[in-house]
Amino acid sequence: MLTKITPRHKEIIRRILCGDSVEDIALSMGMSQHYLRALKRDPLFQNELTEMEREISERFIEERASAREKLKAAEGEAADLCIQAVRGDIDGTPVPMQLRLKSAWDILDRTDNKAPEKKLVMRVDQLIIEAYKKRMKKEGEEEKEDESDS
Q: Interhelix angle for 7-17 vs 43-87, to 10°?
């Protein structure tokens, strides 16, 4: 039975809460798995584990709320940027096709579009890529003709 929680115990708890296995914790901290399993059953250890887990949950909720506020404040600007990317030009800079398609998918994902809409966009993606490849091939052939004319 533990009489107090040491910094070493807190490190074990932290690693448990991070999802490390008993085997990994025991090996890296130089203790037996048997001792670690017994330690996990100790009432004082369990109380500390529960308390740390509660604190982490509270901090997570606070941080999540803060992150949502920050995202909400930036959503208009982000939406404008995505729309510009999909259209192919951000402040006069051409946007590569793959980034345009990724932006389109991102918009669909964030606006909760379901499979039918995504299938349509996937088909459009294929058509755009095919057209882009044809254009690039045609431009390459024209360059070769220009070189052979010279």
A: 40
Compute the radius of gyration of the chain from its Cα atoms.
Answer: 28
What's the CA gap between 31 and 6, in Å, rounded? 15
Place of tokens 């995504």: 118
Alpha-carbon distance of 16 to 12, in angstroms, equals 6
Distance CA 110, CA 107 (A): 5
Q: What is the pTM of this model?
A: 0.48
Question: What would the two tokens of residue 139 be?
Answer: 């431009």
Q: Judge whether 5 and 48 are in contact, CB under 8 Å.
A: yes
Low-confidence ranges of the chain (pLDDT < 50): none
Q: How far apart are CA 106 and CA 79, in angstroms?
A: 10
Question: 94 has which bridge partners?
Answer: 89
Task: Look at strands 93-94 and 89-90 and give their pairing.
Answer: antiparallel
